[in-house]
Each structure stands twice: as structure tokens, then as C-alpha cells.
Design goal:
The chain is of the alpha/beta class and about 375 residues long. About 50% of the residues lie in helices and about 10% in strands. The termini are far apart.
Length: about 375
Amino acid sequence: MSEDLYIDTPEALSELCEQLAHVDWFCLDTEFIREKTYYPRLCLIQVGTPDVVACIDPLSIEDLSPLSKLLHDPNIIKVIHAASQDMEIFYYLDKKLPAPLFDTQVAASLMGLGDQVGYGRLVEDMLQVSLDKSHSRTDWSQRPLEAEQIRYAADDVRYLRDIYQQERQWLIDHDRLHWLDEDFKNLTSTERYKPAPEEAWKRVKGNQRLKPQQLMVLKELASWREHKAMSSNRPKRWVLKDEVLLELARRGPKKLEDLSRIRGLEPGQIRNSGEEILQVIQEAMKKPRAVWPELPRRIRLSEEQDTIADLLMASLRLSGLEASISVQAIATRKEVEQLILGERDLNLMKGWRLQLAGNSLLDILAGKSALRVNNGKIERFTP
């Protein structure tokens, strides 16, 4: 029977970590808030083993180094569901990432349980347990936490223990455990989580409507906004909203009074940052054409190539059907189109995806394999 613990003193944390130091794996989850900050504020860390479930209070414990040591212990597997957000938080915590990793959401896709399946759905499908959702909007920074809130948070690792053990055994039984090595390794790459202000313009919705030089202005403004948000630890939208960035890039204002005509740009923002904004725009306008950013070119297939893509997608679906894996977990149509255009540096051409489906697609492209319908079912054959 598992014992639930609430860890809010350095002494209790040290005692828990001494216990965790001897396990082969433990489940891990976090609760955080970031509505009013740029960086997520870590409010709770949940860990679980077959013997204990614990909620660690990082707001009460200043020194988390005993736990950090375990997070980076190469001999202990950290089990997380949909790891990306949690990994981002741990990256900001000490610029390192928990490893090695097992992501139960990724594993579920190889078991035919759906692509990007949620934790609650997975618990219900695998364990026939319906999770309480009443605290999904909790402000986890408030103290003290109620017993129901702690129980709700603990559930995020309580059932993850059984899910992990069942998934791992299934993957071993079906000789698929090694398929996930590269996927899990990618999730623990620090490059995925480092802020990249110079790339922020690519995520501004509506950027495709700008002309090339306007994109240059957008790039510099978006980078400036990112740095401003990071240094003040405020949400980007509090610095400048996306639609304001686009309008500034489109109009290229030169004077403070020009800024007052930009819809959505508040007087306080003009007063506090107007000169900076104008300087960023002015410097961006001076950049030579050679450094102007370009949007990724849309893949344009000929009608014949588009038909070939349909054929390859049919083969991809057949591969997924045969292996009981969703097509989305293997590759997207965009990747298939890139394959047709000669691109080979694709996830589809690596690891288990290559073995499961990629090689078959290459054989079809080379004329070595084809598809046909036999007794109402699609199958591959050698012409």
C-alpha cells in the first residue's frame, strides 16, 4: 500500500531522496503557473515509486539539490507523461534535464492507444479509473494547499506507476522498447528548451502577410520583446501583443506620435518603451537585403507528385494498421511530401519509423514495391 507524503522541509526532502536513491525508476510530474510571468513558476513536484507517492513543495524548500542529484542520476529512469512542459521547467530550474527518460504518452502511441493521448484518458483506458478533474484550474502557488488539492496532484503520479510498468512490459513483449530510445533522447536535449529570441518572429501569427523587409522589422521587434519579457519575467503579450508587432512591422513608424496611431499600443507602453521600439524599427530598416528573413517555402507538388503522395499515405496507413500504431505517430503528410521532393533528413527516415514504414515508402518510390487490393484488403506486392 503506497504512503502519500507532503514534503515541505529540507529534512523531509533529504529523507525522501535517500529512499529514492535506491530505486530503478520513479514517476515525476509538476504543477506550475505562468499566467503572469515569462518563466513558469514551479509550485509542486510529485514523485512516485511502487512504495511511496510524495508531493514536494519547492516554495517551502529553497535547496532542491538532493532531488536534482536524483533527476540527473543516469541509473534511474524518470517516468513522465507528455514530458515537454515538465522538461522545460526543469531546464529553467538548473539548466539541465532529467535523464534517462520514459514518456508514457510517446509509449502509448506505439501501443495503438492514440497519438498524444492525455493522462486522464490513458488512466481510464488502461486502469479503468476516472480521475477527479475538479482542481484542474487550481492556483498552485497558494498556501496552504488543501488535502483534496494534494490528493489531486498526487494522482498524477499515483496511477502513472502502473501505466509505466504495463507499457514497459508490453513494449518488451512486442520487441518495441528499443524503438523509443531516439525519441526519449531527443526529449532530453537542452536545445529544445533554450529560449531563442532570434527565432520568435516565426511564431507570430500572421507573419506570412508581411513583405520581406517588414519581416526583418518583425524579427527584430519580436527578439526585442522576447528579451524584454525575459528580463522582466512578464508574459510576452504584456510587453507587446502579436497584432501590435505585426502593425508596427507593417507601418514602420518613425516618430512617437506615429506610435499613438497603432491600435492596441497603450499610452503607458509608448511612454515606457516608445523610444526603444522606434530604435529597433530604425535599426531593422537599415539591415541589408541579404540578411532579411524568409518564411519557409510552401511545398508545392505537381498533380502527379500529389497523386504519388496519396499512394505513399496509403502505404503509411497500411504500416500503421499492421503495427497498430496511429499514422500521426509515424509521419505527417508534409514529411511524405518532403520525401517525394528528395529530402531524407526526416524522422520518417530514422530509427523505428524507417524500419516500420520508411523503407516501404522508398521501395514504392523506386518501383520495387506496389500496392493492390486483394479480397477487399490492401496489401504490398513486388511487381
